[in-house]
């Protein structure tokens, strides 16, 4: 980004300009392997992640959960994850399908990132024809990934040590069960972040294989999609409210003569509502 402001545009940038590239869009695409199956798989998984997030975030937004700081943080991170899934699943899937390289969409690639289908993930080197020998590095990303991988590892050690210390002190069984559930959820949410940061940090010191680069990209997708899966299928607070919301939506479809009209029964909470002022039950 610094070089963009330095030169004013991409055409004047000696490392990122495609002015001298005479190949057409189709010719550039023909230079690379097309992976439509993987691309469509990425897009499909992205759709599932987004659906899970929409359900989870709607539960947080339309309930009293948003009053708690932890759920406010979960909601904010969820919105950011939804936006990132557009990049790491939908956009990446499209690039896999067409067999992409930098000069096909130079401005988009410069600001979003360079992905080559041959390598299976985003890389620093754009491999512009005629500039393959130039060096492209980012000390900032390497430093950040190294710091994140070390910090998460230390946090895990501290959390697990604290948990085991409380177990040895003989806390109640119900409290131990609750703490174990929290530990499992945090592990599932943060493990993809740890693996992604660790893999990308290692790429600065060793030459990665194609398998490791594909694995790093998959880990990046899970880093942003796994929280939605955990919220919806592991976190009982969100899970129960989400499934109740789905049942309400289906029941609304039934009341309007939708396809579920003969299959959906009213939920107990919809059959009667207690008036708190009189203690009498009202029927909807």
From TrEMBL:
Keywords: Membrane, Transmembrane, Transmembrane helix. The chain crosses the membrane at residues 37-62, 74-97, 109-128, 140-161, 182-205, 211-234. PANTHER family: SERPENTINE RECEPTOR, CLASS T (PTHR23021), SERPENTINE RECEPTOR, CLASS T-RELATED (PTHR23021:SF28). SUPFAM superfamilies: Family A G protein-coupled receptor-like. It comes from the Eukaryota. It comes from Mesorhabditis belari. This is G protein-coupled receptor.
């Amino acid at each position: 980004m610094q070089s963009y402001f330095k030169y004013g545009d991409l055409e004047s940038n000696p490392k990122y300009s495609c002015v001298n590239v005479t190949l057409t869009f189709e010719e550039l695409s023909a230079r690379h392997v097309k992976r439509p199956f993987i691309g469509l798989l990425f897009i499909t998984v992205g759709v599932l992640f987004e659906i899970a997030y929409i359900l989870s975030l709607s539960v947080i937004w339309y309930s009293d959960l948003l009053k708690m700081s932890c759920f406010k943080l979960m909601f904010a991170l969820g919105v950011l994850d939804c936006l990132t899934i557009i990049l790491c699943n939908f956009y990446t899937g499209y690039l896999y399908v067409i067999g992409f390289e930098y000069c096909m969409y130079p401005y988009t690639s410069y600001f979003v990132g360079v992905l080559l289908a041959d390598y299976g993930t985003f890389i620093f080197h754009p491999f512009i024809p005629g500039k393959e020998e130039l060096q492209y590095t980012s000390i900032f990303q390497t430093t950040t990934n190294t710091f994140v991988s070390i910090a998460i590892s230390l946090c895990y050690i501290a959390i697990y040590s604290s948990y085991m210390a409380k177990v040895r002190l003989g806390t109640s069984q119900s409290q131990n069960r609750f703490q174990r559930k929290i530990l499992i959820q945090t592990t599932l949410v943060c493990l993809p972040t740890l693996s992604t940061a660790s893999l990308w940090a290692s790429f600065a010191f060793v030459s990665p294989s194609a398998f490791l680069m594909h694995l790093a990209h998959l880990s990046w997708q899970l880093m942003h999609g796994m929280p939605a899966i955990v919220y919806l299928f592991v976190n009982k607070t969100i899970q129960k409210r989400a499934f109740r919301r789905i049942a309400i939506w289906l029941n609304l479809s039934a009341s309007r003569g939708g396809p579920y009209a003969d299959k959906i029964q009213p939920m107990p909470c919809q059959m009667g509502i207690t008036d708190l002022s009189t203690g009498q039950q009202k029927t909807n």
